[in-house]
Every structure is written in structure tokens, then in C-alpha cells.
């Protein structure tokens, strides 16, 4: 094996941020698109927890957490400072919120049948806004990216989850007073990097 092998799922936000980091870092990798209903035995042998992304390096090392894949991607290949700019306290705090309470609220909002609540999915939606989107809005005030005038790894880490949140009800999301966040999201949705990330693998 000459290149890293990435087990991925096109629409998974964790896998998206791993792919975007690898692409931004200029790393050539082989991509194995996984069916979540029929996970490949090879992936399960490498990572029994059975979630994507999972990356097998040419030397045999396995990395099965998306942030660790991002860190590996930029390690020694960060001349533009993508990873370095994401290590400030504010960026690290936003990523922790995204991966913790916001992701839990997103699941309750997107999959109410799996997370029944007397308050309904709108309660989880509103909590998610207060939890991450308001702090994100403040962080983006007066700048294009979490990295400032240029993006950083924190943008990559958070963007796919905000994309997923908006997709539940895009009209509602677009009507909210979250102008900086909406503009930031649209920049990423229209970016060449995201376009490459979402290309369907050749069959």
C-alpha cells in the first residue's frame, strides 16, 4: 500500500472534515466509500467500533478519530498555518462544543423518532442555537473565518455539522438572525475544497 486508505461515508460530517483536511494538506489517499448497512470486514478489523472515518496508513498505523486524522494531515504539512491557527483557546472551545453538546442536540433535532421528547424537536433546535450557533456568530463577527481573514482547521471541523443542522429546515435556518454564520456557511458550501470533498468516487 503506497497511499493512506480512508474508509469514509460521503454525507457523514466526521468523514467530511477528515477528507477536507487531507485534501487541503495535499495528501493523496485512496477512498473506500462505506455502506453503513453493510460495513466492510476490513474496516471492522481495523476499528471494531464501526464508525467512519477510519484511516490505514502505509506503515500499518490506524487512525479512527476524525480530529486525529485532521491533526495527522496537517502535521509537518502546515506551511499555511491551518492547524496552528485552530489551536487558540476560542477555536478549541468551539470545536469541543460542536463535538459534544451541539452534536447531541443536532441528533435530537434531526432524528426526533430516535430521541422522543415531550417538548419536540424544536426544543433541541433552539438549544442547539444557543449552545453553538450564537457563540459561533459572535466569533465570526467582523471576520470571514474562525482563523480570521483566512480559514483554519476549526472551520473545517465545525462546518459539516452546521451544514447538517441547516439541512433539517433550511428555510428556518436562513430566516434566523445569524448573518455572519450564514455567510460563513455559504462560503464553505460554495468552496472548491468542499466541492472536491463531495465528489462521488468512481465506480
Automatic annotation (TrEMBL):
It comes from the Bacteria. InterPro entries: Glutathione-S-Trfase_C_sf, Glutathione_S-Trfase, Glutathione_S-Trfase_N, GST_Omega/HSP26, Thioredoxin-like_sf. Residues 2-81 form the GST N-terminal domain. Pfam families: GST_C_2, GST_N_2. GO terms for cellular component: cytoplasm. PANTHER family: GLUTATHIONE S-TRANSFERASE OMEGA (PTHR43968:SF6), PTHR43968. This is Glutathione S-transferase N-terminal domain-containing protein. It comes from Caenimonas aquaedulcis.
